[in-house]
Amino acid sequence: MTTTRRGRPRSFDRDAALGRALDAFWRHGYEGTSMATLTEAMGLNPPSVYAAFGGKRELFDAVVAHYQEEKRELMASALSESGSAREAVARLLRVLADDYTDRSHPPGCLVISAAVNCSPAASEVEASLRAHREASKRAIAERIAVDHPARAEALALYVAAVVQGMSTQARDGATREQLRGLADTAMLAWPDGD
């Protein structure tokens, strides 16, 4: 059985539109980004945005999924290269120092900063982003557990705190060199013997 679509076909590049919405949410946060800001950034009228993505929350979820696709690979690559857990974490922090200060996108990390100080109305968004951060922390803990099974959780919590601080520092204007220095300094706290 053949079904026909009603209405006009989409006349825009979905990935490009998501990229422009990503930039808006990244710069202004979830609550600070209005639908008017989004439609202007995306170059679409409100009915087109609602038809393609749903409401603001659904669009944000699509943006985060789009963002996470790329960033998950960045993190996985840094953690999966050969070497000790210490080397993997040091590599991850250097990669993030570079990424958080990359001028091709807003500074820092969308998942860390998009729902800071949200009102109760955005508690689901806040919880969703927290779940993404927890998944990243688990991935770090799993890599650390190869060398430090007894300390994996504590070290992963430490690394997550450093990563979140690096994101905030990048948003505050820290340079790539400053974040690399912070990453090197953070590694001084790593346990002896690896």
UniProtKB/TrEMBL annotation:
UniProt DNA-binding residue ranges: 34-53
Segments forming domain HTH tetR-type: 11-71
Organism: Stackebrandtia nassauensis (strain DSM 44728 / CIP 108903 / NRRL B-16338 / NBRC 102104 / LLR-40K-21)
Name of the protein this chain belongs to: Transcriptional regulator, TetR family
Keyword tags: DNA-binding, Transcription, Transcription regulation
InterPro entries: DNA-bd_HTH_TetR-type_CS, Homeodomain-like_sf, HTH_TetR, Tet_transcr_reg_TetR-rel_C_sf
Pfam family, one: TetR_N
GO molecular function, one term: DNA binding
